[in-house]
Design goal:
This protein has 723 residues and is an alpha/beta fold.
Amino acid sequence: MNLQADIVTVKGVGPKTAAALRQAGIQTVGDLLYLLPRTYENYQTVTDIAHLRPGKVMVKGKITNLKTNRAFKRRLTITEGIIRDATGALRTLWFNQAYRERQFDPQREYYFSGTYEFRRGRYQLTSPTAVLAADVDAQPAGLQPLYSTRSGLKPALFRKLIMGLRPQFTTIPDLLPFTPGHPDFLYPGARAEALFAAHFPTTDADSQTARRYLAYEELFELILASKLNREANQRLKAIPLPFQAGFTRALVSSLPFQLTAAQRRAAWEIFQDLGRDLPMNRLLQGDVGSGKTVVAALAAAQAALYGHQAALLAPTAILAAQHYESLSKLFASLRLSSPPSSTNSATQPSTNSAAPRVPRLALLTSATKHKAALKAQIAAGEIDLVIGTHALLTDDTQFHSLALCIIDEQHRFGVAQRQKLLLKSPAATAPHLLAMTATPIPRSLQLTVFGDLDSSILNQLPAGRQPITTHLLPETEQQDQLYPAMRALLAAGQQIYWICPAIDAPAAEVAPNPSTTAAKAPSAQPPAAKPLTSVKRQAKKLAELFPDCRVGLLHGKLSPAEKDQVMSDFAAGRTHILVSTTVVEVGVNVPNANMIIIQDAEHYGLAQLHQLRGRVGRGDQPASCYLLTTGNQPPSRRLRELTKSTDGFYLAEVDLKLRGPGEIYGSLQHGALNLQFATLSDRRLVTAASHHAGEFARTPDQLSAYPELAARIKKYQQLTTLN
Ligand code: ADP
Ligand code: MG
């Protein structure tokens, strides 16, 4: 059987069915075979209707008296019928499956499997699956597959097509290479066996073994894709920026603080990479407040030193402006503290160690005035470090010699956006890439999806940081437990963030929150009864409660200029309480703000809450975070975890367990990372696949001998690459 063959080659698939299957994403024979049953049915467990007991049951009989009713006022149809066997009759019904009315031949027998229960005064069989008895009885005994509906295509179609292919399963070719390091459950014919057992297992254990093999396949492909990306990346040329000890020392000693050991280690790793003519592809992971920006600044200065350029891409205008300001300050102190020039031969770079060359900075966001003039300067190489938002990515932003790209909060950007920036380096070169994130990547993802990245970790906060205390507090107790604490803090001259989910009062205007709408936890949805709190209303309320304070108001509907104003007022201490939506979540740094209150805390995902909390505790004062909850539900697991830990790496692992990988990294980046069989937290399988794929990737050219594998990993290659 050729799994790459078009779906029309399957017996029973005409042009019309083929078109429908393609619509559902099933293009090839392989796509069809990898559509595994939702569950299995054992048709040996039929019970006579006369002897039914409540619970999961299977009966065999004919069905008559079918009719469909529409439930009053509800968008619900109820289709019901009477099933009969030799021993008795039974009422059955389905919800919103009106097609059932026309599905059955009253003269023929079917197997019905569903829940037998007592409802509204009588017994019924609720929402049974139904299969023509003749079909089942013609098959060998054992478990029989039940498929899901997919894009409107009925389970019966999949069942028919796959049953039709059953005799050919033994001819399914192997997929994975038997290269050194392969695990022992990989042997010739293993794939054919696994696919067969996944559709037609004899026992439950059979199907589990089969799915484990398929999970392995999936992990192998994912990991191989990322290793091959790395391989391809290594073939590109970058502009080498060798380490200059004197220059870096001068820069570091001009800082108002001592670098942490972790910052020094990360900077060292980065300098090693920058010195090579291979593009750096490095992820700088550091929990909120760990001081990533200064590490990035050291790298950017290195590019400027050699007369090349660096670009720093930030996800919001607020953040870009903040980076611009803090880096301007940082480099200005470099100018002040630069030692008198010592004699030095004019070796490359010419600007070396005489006086550190102070990088020239510019800020480019959509609010920037005189954009054209600034862009001309960038193109002429008169700017060394451009800090900006998406405005940086437009085609008319061109660089004289872009050698280094720094992407802050990299998970906020899509693959296409990153690529746009990376393509701005001089022809025939690739820029060095430093991606930064405070959303730590769990180890299991590091091994799989991000295997092509090098990573540096800031696992240490700057000295003098005080711990953040997190409180879970029902909203009803604000008066007693929160306001006094706020008063004390404000009296001490410190500042407060207050976060609400909505902008305007009516709850209907709330933008869906991507990190929770996807979450399966029903608790992520606020109870309909209580509308989400809006920043506007809350700002008013706080202004009344704290008449001596000035209250700032920040949300996404303000213009960039207004946002900047609000933010700089808060940063300068002109406002004392900042009421905001999550627009402050990303990276904003106001060290004098030491309390954050998050209203309707259940509305947010774990990673987002951790990010929000990271807005405080950035100075040398103790900080606190209040998670306000509504309703009388016990707090969810993610809120409880958050009170227990401030370790972003630990929380990321918890989040991965609670939500799964596709959702953590969001549709933005990994919408397609929808693993069908594997779970990334299966360390043993991940490690085995990583080892095996690593061996294979040593000689990447051999992939051409595995055309099906090559085709299958293409989708992952696009997914994982940073370049
Ligand atoms: P993040 O990693 O969250 O981006 P930032 O780079 O914004 O963190 O740094 C947070 C704050 O810590 C800033 O005010 C920065 O100046 C300060 N900082 C960074 N490194 C150190 C250090 N080694 N010692 C003291 N303060 C530091
Ligand atoms: Mg940051």
